[in-house]
Amino acid sequence: MKKTLLFLSVMFCFTSLVKAQEFQVGTNAINVGVGVGGYYYGYNVSDQSPVFSVSYERGVWDVPGPGVVSLGGYLGHKRFSRNENFDDYNWSYTTVGFRGAYHYTGFNIDNLDVYGGAMLSYRVYGGDDYEDYRSRPGASAYAGGRWYFNEHIAAFAEIGYGSAYLTLGATFRF
Hints:
The chain is mainly β. Helix content is 9%, strand content 60%. The chain has one helix at 2-17, and strands at 28-36, 47-48, 51-63, 67-84, 87-104, 112-127, 136-148, 153-160, 166-173. The protein has an 8-stranded antiparallel barrel with strand order 1-3-4-5-6-7-8-9. A hairpin with an 8-residue loop joins β6 and β7.
């Protein structure tokens, strides 16, 4: 416990010295994340992978509020397996989506980026023919935040439902 508190204290002191700008028009960001939760249709599964995802966004315009709107894309993948009556079923979903987000820039905290948005997607099904699994369009909403450790690297967390209920990862800004 003492080591954890010491680590967090050192990280807080280190990151408080960093003065990264919040999200703005022209900012490009790539998120690489691992998500948990969100298996489809409520079926019990024997095994499932986390959701591996990558997304890109670019700040495209300022809006009153204050804030910036970003547009971008999303790609996520999740694998499942199920053993039912000695039969094994394996399937996966790859989610391809178009995202838009509103980044609130009104906080006076240089390292923080908070945002919320929506995604239109298409879930591509692959695997064994089982029940009603099939490719289909989808829509989702999400909210998230990033904490920049320096001008180019941040940790992020998102809640919502693209392919997972909670996604954690790293952001690379350029």
